[in-house]
UniProtKB/TrEMBL annotation:
Its main location: membrane. It comes from Philodulcilactobacillus myokoensis. It is a multi-pass membrane protein. Keywords: Chloride, Chloride channel, Ion channel, Ion transport, Membrane, Transmembrane, Transmembrane helix, Transport. InterPro entries: Cl-channel_core, ClC, ClC-type_chloride_channel. The keyword Transport applies. It comes from the Bacteria. The chain crosses the membrane at residues 12-33, 53-72, 150-174, 181-203, 223-240, 261-281, 293-311, 323-344, 350-369, 390-408. Pfam families: Voltage_CLC. One of its GO terms (cellular component) is chloride channel complex. It is found in: Membrane. This is ATP synthase F0 subunit A. The lineage of its organism: Bacteria, Bacillati, Bacillota, Bacilli, Lactobacillales. One of its GO terms (molecular function) is chloride channel activity. The keyword Thylakoid does not apply. The gene is eriC.
Amino acid sequence: MKKLKLDKLNAVVNGVLIGIVVGIITSCFRLLIDRLFLLIRIVYRLAASNLAWVAVIGLTNIVIGILIAWIINDDPDIKGSGIPQSQGQITGVLKYPWFKTLWHKFIGSILTVGSGIFMGPEGPAIQIGASAAQGISILRTDDPEKRRTMMAGGVASGLATIFNAPIASTLFVLEGVYRDFSILVSLTALTSAIIANFISTVLFGEIPIFHLADLHMYPLHDYGLLIILGVVIGIAGYFYQQITLKVNSIQFHIKGLPSNFNVLIPLILVIPFGMDLPIILGSGSNLIIKITRFKFSIGAILLYLILRFLLSELSMSTKAPGGILVPMLVIGALIGDLCGQLFIDLGLLNPIYLSNIIIIGMVGFFASISQTPFTSIILITEMVGTLQHLMALAFVTVIAYLIADILGNGPLYDIMLKQITDCHFKSIYKK
């Protein structure tokens, strides 16, 4: 009797297990961040009319900063985004104790992202997913390659839970983590992403994160403007990556305090913005929705762009556990909005297409920095929930990707992983 081939079936079974576990954990993670951020915004509204609440916020943020510093001191592996670390786990470059990393990243990132400082939940969700999948893989197999495959499923399911984008999450694993196509990896990742996305959808609903009702089919006769937009976005993406990598390599500290307490800086700076300009708080996803639904002046958009760039870079430089992917999308959206409004003011573009330009700017900017064009296109398509702008997205993405590549951009998370490993090996050498 012919022996049955069960590799693909096992990949699907593993994907289901990972999707259920990671979907539950990261959905709870997302829910707690949303609730904490909602509470923080309510307190800021109270502080705007009663200054006594400012002292409450200040004391709370100091306590949050001390807790984050303590968690980082106990587990330095949770610093920063979590995506390069997860990539290092999967490729075998780095090794982490899965349970310790999971719960430290879970609590630390809720405090960081939920407090309203300028970081996102997506990177932490990926590291949480990879760590949970690593724990499951230890129970399921002794084969290192199969364990890495299961951790890839954890990455996909963690990202899918945050963005409700299972296809893009699978592509991210193949294009941005493995950088190779494997049927077993893709099956595991896709299955786990679908299951995790189902759990997330039950909790948060089926409406896409950036659902837009007023998107129109972008006209072919205006594609010349998209060439200009693609070039601008590509150049901006290049400078953003270079600055981000330099900031990420900085090791500074508040005088008299260990470097882990750097997170106190954005936690204190966020207070006046929370009172006077709450639209820019947090990961920035609310800001993207606002600028696509309401027209802001060019001056306001430029102000938001400068503040979001400076404050997100500052937050990232503290090595606090929080993501940079959503903040990147926000900056891309604001650049798109700025370009779109200039086109409109010059009489080159019909105002009904401004939302299209914002979305296109978002995907082109992310692709130029991450060097993952396929993931970028599908991610934003799933997050927006419509395919009618796909051609324009792809057109700008290719241009922005090529411009940034010619200027010297590499895959951001690969370079950040190298920074982490270099720092890790230097610390070992010193010991």
